[in-house]
Amino acid sequence: MDLSEKLSSSKQTVVGVLLGPKLIRIILQTKQSIDRIQQLVEANKEANTNLNFFSRKDINLASRTVSGTFFNFSGNRWERRTMPLPDVIYVRGGSGQKVAKLITTLERMGVKRINPIVAFNKGNLFEELIRDQEVSPYIPATVSVKEMAEIRTMIRKHEKVYVKARIGRKGTKVMRIEKLSAGGYRYSYSILGDLVRKKVQSMQRLEQVINRFFGGREVIVQQAIDLARVDRGRLCDFRAEVQRNKKGEIEIVGISIRVGQRNSPITTHGEAFRYDTYLSTLFPDYSEAQLVTLKQKINSFLMTVYAGVEKKYGKFGEIGIDFAVDRQGKIWLIECNAQSAKVSIGKAYGELARRAFLNPLEYAKLIAGGGIRTSRGSGSSGSQSASGSSRTTGSRSASGSSRTTGSESASGSSRTTGSRSASGSSRTTGSRSASGSSRTTGSRSASGSSRTTGSRSASGSSRTTGSRSASGSSRTTGSQSASGSSRTTGSESASGSSRTTGSRSASGSSTSGSTRTSGAPRTSGGSSGRRSNS
To answer: Which domains does the chain have, with CATH numbers?
Structure first.
């Protein structure tokens, strides 16, 4: 019996986790695993996959084998073994062209992948998303730099800007530039937690600093966001871990609030706090109702961005979404991460962050069995669901015998706000809840026999942008469906405006699906904050 036959007989999904060669050496030489690696190993006790770790150099394409590193629980040690190519590859290290080429080659050989790309090119990503009318309101002014004059123009126009490498991780190639009222410019950046903050008097000198720092890399320049701050000016932003679970449904697994070091231009390498308990600290003047509304907008924003990214690149098993809320309460997209290190969620939520490591392994089992298409460019038929038959549970029904099958509350409160049934026999399915108030908002059924599945519905010949159902016996399925000749444009927008986002559905071909907000944000309790690297 060859290796492939042995593997087939085990009936376990083989998941290969691609790491950098240095990390593999550390594991083998010290026999110790880095925290995020150990978290995957622990999560696999429940997922029960055949989990192996290897680097690009450990793969033999000719023999279709890899030299994999795995943790032997019976012997309580790390070991090596030769095994066939995995069923699914999960990239957790490396973002260069060699890695990207390898993953493409493995895909042609039948290996599935958690994400359709290895890393986002920030320039390409923003160029695509700015053309998406649902996502563009969240994007700050951004220019892909072809010549230094474009940076000069952005500084003159906005006075405060960020220059970022188009490809980079952990904030290592990000520079903040501020035009000073007294003349000259201040620039700052952080290298693995070490802050550099200096002034120059001329634009010519600033250009020299930029060229030296980025070393010929392609960059973008963005308008600086007026970030919310705490503790005498420390910048704050957010990292959301958004993933598909074992059913292919999208979950907002956790949201961390990251607080940067004093005077640091970035929040990476600062502290991380629980979103559900720290949001009131970040916005102390907000009432409970305002905090609930903000959480609703954040949830909608995250689903809108996830959908926008999938329209371009195909289905993702996970995306780390960095975003900001400015001092006026407006939400801004900072960037998307195809390889989130999950440091912030781990620091902020501790053991409650375990789901962020379990979901990718469970999702790997789904795609290995052909439960969902993952090839690049396959797109997303719906903004929030991996498949039409998926269903999530969690939100409470409003009254009578109604049943709400939708996402769970992201606020940690038992009170729900979102899609609820207003009649005895109606059933609502799909809308997101970010509760904290007993007052219900969202889609409601206005008749005794109607059944709504998804967000809001409309009937007749009107075009819907979030109106409530008023029909007697209509049945709608998906994110905003319509009957008759009506046209729907998706689920509600995060900004509260009439623009809509999400999957589109027309009469006779409704789509169904739901989102789920679960995991760490659902729990309440005292906040904990530790240093964060992502």
So the answer is: 3-113 (3.40.50), 141-223 (no CATH), 229-382+525-531 (3.30.470.20), 412-498 (no CATH)
